[in-house]
Amino acid sequence: MKRNRNAGFTLVELMIVVAIIGLLSAIAIPAFSKYVKKSRGAEAAGSLQKMWAGSASYYLSDHADSNTVIPEKQFPGPAGTTEDPVQCACQSAGKCPGYSTAFSDPVWTSLGFSLADPHLFMPAYASSGTADTAVFTAQVIGDLDCDGVLQTFQRIGAVVSGDPTGASAAAIINEGE
Question: How many domains does the structure of the chain reveal?
Answer without folding.
Answer: 1
